[in-house]
Amino acid sequence: MARTGAQYSALNGTKLEYSTTETGTYNQIYGLKTLPDIGGEPNTIDTTDLDNTEYETAILGLKPVQNYNFEFNMEDPTVTANIKVVSDMEDSGNEYYFKLTYSNGIVVTFSSKVRTTITGGSTGELAGFTMHVSPTGEPVRTIPASTSL
């Protein structure tokens, strides 16, 4: 039987924020264009033994290391421009705390150092850059529960 009344969300309104401390004030990095996949398919651990006669068996293991690439439209350089903010993070060599908040309220938090790439392009395209991060711990996903029907 089909479920009725299901609600879906577009990604528009999703934001990426950063802070120098986990409980500090988070500031948005503007111009976010694309999001990476969050999570991953876990490795498998082989449990096949001589009792198996037709199929191998396995259990789920750990997920592989995550590398996230966030693409941005590049703001014209100013002290507060997104490219300046992210470049300064990279130049500092420090670890930052990130909060990715989807338009539907799902939040993913993680910490990482930052690397950047200024993206190539051609005539008629906006200038852009990619921020590369690799969480130093396990990302935490928070999915809010709604009581409305």
What this model shows, in words?
Helix content is 7%, strand content 33%. The chain has 149 residues and is mainly beta. The chain has a domain at 15-37 and 65-142: Pnp Oxidase, Chain A (Roll), CATH 2.30.110. The strands form three sheets. The chain has a five-stranded antiparallel β-sheet, with no helix packed on it. A four-stranded antiparallel β-sheet has the order 3-6-10-9, covered by helices on one side. Strands 4-5 form a two-stranded antiparallel ribbon.
In the predicted model, the low-confidence regions spanning at least 5 consecutive residues are none
- pLDDT average, as an integer? 92
Number of DSSP strand runs:
11
Q: Rg, please?
A: 20 Å
Biggest beta-sheet profile? 5 strands, antiparallel
What would CATH call the architecture of the domain at 15-37 and 65-142?
Answer: Roll
Structural class of the helix and strand makeup? mainly beta
Share in β-strands: 25-35%
CATH class of the domain at 15-37 and 65-142: Mainly Beta
The name of the CATH topology of the domain at 15-37 and 65-142 is Pnp Oxidase, Chain A
Please report the distance between the alpha carbons of the first and last residues.
Answer: 18 Å
- Elements, N to C (H/E): EEEEEEHEEEEE
How would you write the strand order of the largest sheet?
2-1-7-8-11
Write the layout of secondary structure elements.
Layout: E1 15-19, E2 27-28, E3 32-34, E4 44-46, E5 58-60, E6 68-73, H1 82-92, E7 96-101, E8 107-112, E9 114-119, E10 128-133, E11 140-142
Antiparallel strand pairs: 1-2, 1-7, 3-6, 4-5, 6-10, 7-8, 8-11, 9-10
